[in-house]
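SEQUENCE-TO-STRUCTURE ENTRY
===========================

Backbone structure tokens: a row of integers, each naming the local backbone shape at its residue.

Task: work out the structure tokens from the sequence, keeping to the layout shown below.
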Amino acid sequence: MKPGLLDYLACLRCGAGLACEARLVDGAEVIEGTLRCAGCHAEFPIRGGVPRMLPPALSAPERATSRAFGTQWHILSGLDRVLGTEFESYLHPLPASALAGLAVLDAGCGSGKFAVAATEAGARAVVAVDLSDAVDVAWRNLRDRPGAHVVQASIDRLPLRPAAFDFAYSIGVLHHTPNPEKAFHQIVPLVQPGGRLFVWVYALEGNEAFLRWLDPWRVRVFSRLPSWANRVAATVLAAPLWAVIRALYVPLERRARAGGLPYAEYFLYFSRLGFGTFWGTVYDKLVPPVAFYLSRDDVRGWLRDARLTEEFLHHRNRNSWSCLARRDPVA
């Protein structure tokens, strides 16, 4: 933990500021120590360079989700050459360079790859938060980046100061929480008036066939299997699909004739990122115990209830929603 993180943290119990008592320091990082609240005197441990600020008890879905994604991000722990391209594709049409000089929140960071991309885009500070022990992977990927911080916490109870961030994003996370709308509303107050909030979630529109024929297998079978079995299943499913993408979708794209194929934009997107990213996405579709698919009206309802101004709501790859919104400045 870098000392600068204290500018963004707040006590999980009372919201007051925190002080750090270090026991083991390595360069700019506190590796082991304790955070103490100046108000209620609550204590939170720092282990492996990461403040552990989880609530006293997690719900059963939260525990299951934490296990599933913690395992996933330990498997997919590396930073690949396309992470910047992938980050840009989620934010589009907002350029990643728009984060330059900003204090940024990554709500649900996984391995920290998009937090890395945010630092490379010039963000002044990036606070990456995750529920699972993927934070250990994220910390390894971010520890040598000035202004980059990692916290283990629940998105439903974020130990962060109100209005501390210029920009917050949550990519591929809200739809795996027990209540996506509630999780969204936990992030909004952390963005300062005039700041922006970006979310990417699964769309109901464009996934009707998947939800009818394939997603029930996740619910009934795959989400209950051990990790090793799902790794095998992901490979068995991804390899032939990848062969079809390369042999059929890519050649037809070159001839401008791929548009009529199912999931054409989605599969062609992965053809540009590589098999590793595609395999990770297939694995991601198998393991989560919770997965919501949101409609355009759902997302716009979140914005309306939070009194946010929509800047764009894009049907990304025709099967997900990319949404950028702004908090209105204080009058």
Summary: The first strand starts at residue 18 and ends at 26. The chain has a mean pLDDT of 92.
